[in-house]
Design goal:
With about 210 residues, the protein is α/β, with parallel strands linked by helices. It folds into 3 domains: about 45 residues; about 60 residues, Ubiquitin-like (UB roll) (Roll); about 80 residues, Orthogonal Bundle (DNA polymerase, domain 1), CATH 1.10.150. Helix content is about 40%, strand content about 15%. The protein has 7 helices and 7 strands, in the order αααββαββββαααβ. The strands form 3 sheets. The chain has a 3-stranded mixed sheet, covered by helices on one side. A two-stranded antiparallel sheet has the order 4-5. A hairpin with a 5-residue loop joins strand 1 and strand 2. Helix 1 crosses helix 2. It is rod-shaped and about 130 Å long. The termini are far apart.
């Protein structure tokens, strides 16, 4: 390569008055430039091939970062080991609340409580409430209960214990509650088909949310 470079320089400087020393110096400088160019090209190629590929980092979604567990607060009273107010995960059922309160006392029946009912915030569960007392008055069937019935947790039998409420009306109340969710107020009972003002006024002293 050096001999070819010298020949090229001789051809280009033939008409110039360059001595042999001048030509040798030009050949050395040209050779250095050529070597530096080859070295630079080689290093650039190696650097481009060795460059690592950076994969994007998956960040947690905004929804996941803002996810907060939801709880309901319920009051468990009556004949349980530890009556009190408890916070339970949303979606818990009545049986979970009773377990949180240490379970019912020995010999206490739970047949009057729908253990599978979903809990709602602010609900009260009374374990071992007195059984309703049913009395007959002449030709009209009248029902009176010493216990206040919670309409958001009452069973079919408990609703039927209310004065003027038979199996059909009790079933309608349960169907409305299942479809629309817990009653927000006692007045919402008026939205149940067949619940007139007179019947509502009759059961009002015996119910709560």
């Amino acid at each position: 390569m050096m001999s070819q470079l010298r020949q090229w320089i001789d051809d280009r400087t033939l008409h110039l008055e360059f001595t042999a020393e001048h030509k040798r110096g030009l050949a050395i400088i040209s050779g250095l430039f050529l070597a530096v160019g080859v070295l630079y090209f080689t290093l650039a190629q190696g650097a481009s091939q060795a460059s690592p590929t950076i994969s994007p980092i998956a960040l947690p979604s905004k929804a996941a970062a803002m996810a907060i567990p939801t709880f309901v607060v319920v009051d468990v009273s009556g004949k349980v080991a530890e009556p009190g107010v408890y916070s339970l995960p949303k979606g818990s059922r009545a049986i979970d609340a009773i377990k949180a309160a240490g379970n019912a006392l020995s010999g206490v029946s739970l047949t009057d409580i729908n253990l599978a009912s979903l809990l709602f915030d602010g609900e009260q569960i009374v374990v071992g409430a007195p059984a309703p007392v049913v009395t007959a008055h002449k030709s009209t069937k009248s029902k009176a209960s010493s216990a206040i019935i919670g309409i958001n947790s009452a069973t079919q039998a408990q609703l039927e214990s209310l004065p003027g409420i038979g199996p059909v009306m009790a079933a309608r109340i349960l169907a409305y509650r299942s479809k629309s969710g817990p009653f927000a107020s006692l007045d919402d009972l008026k939205k149940v088909s067949g619940m007139g003002k007179a019947k509502y006024s009759e059961i009002l002293p015996h119910i709560r949310l």
